[in-house]
Amino acid sequence: FSVAVAFGYDNALSVQYAMPYITKKRNFGLQFGVSANASRKVAYTVDNYQLQYFLSNKKIIRKGFSVSAGFTYRPKYHLTWQVDIAYHHTLYGDTILKNYPDFWTNNTINYFQFYTKLKLDHRNYASYPLEGYYIDVIGEKLGFGLPFEHVHAGSLQTNFRYYVPVVKQLYFGIGMTAYTVWGRYPLQVVKCLGANDIEMRGLYSYLIPAQHLILLKTNFKVELLPPKFVRIRNWDTRIGHLSFACYWNFFSDMVYFI
Hints:
This protein is mainly β. The protein starts with a strand and ends with a strand.
C-alpha cells in the first residue's frame, strides 16, 4: 500500500494497493490504483527537443483522474506476465486550446488504456547486472473505439539486455530497445526518445519524437573494487546489510529513428 502527494504547480494524489501473492503457489497477484491531479502547468508542445510549458499563476488549467486494476502472473521464477487496464480523464482549460489550437481537438481527453508486459529475467543482479540476460515484450493500446473516447493509439516495444564476463575484472554488456507507435498519443504520455525510460546517455535532457525507433547500447565495465557486503548490527537480516562496489564504465550508444 502506498500514497503519494505532490504540491506546487502540480497538485496530485495517488493511492496504490498491491497484493503480490493471493494463491498458495505465490505466483499470482493483484494491483489497484487511483489518482487525481490539478495543475497550473501544462506541457503543450515539443520545440527544439525540449518540452514547452504554459504556466498559470492563479488558475487551474488541467485537472483529471485515473483508475487502474491489473494482475501479475509468475508461472516460473524468471518469467513474469503483467496486465493492467486503466481509465483516464483529463480536462484542460479553454486557455490552452485558445492559445495553442494544435494541442488537441478539444479540451477533454478520455480513454481506456490496456497494458501488458511479458518478461524473462536471468540477470545475476537486477540492479547492476554483470552476467545473464533479460528480454521483455510490451504492448499498449490507448482507446477501445468507444464513442466517448478521444484517443486511438498504441505501441509495441521490446527490450533486450545481455551481460557477460570477458576476463577477470572486465565485463561486457549490450542492450537493444525497439518500438513502433501508431496513432496520436497525448503529450503527457508521449512515447519518444527521452521519455518512458527510453534514454540515450548524454542526451538525458532532450525529448526527440519518433514513430519507429531502435536504440543500441554497449558497455565495458572494469572492476576497481569487487562487491562487498557489510552486516549492520541489530537490524533485521532482510534489510540489515550494506553492499557496495566500484567499476570504471565505458559506454557507447547508437540510435536510429524515423
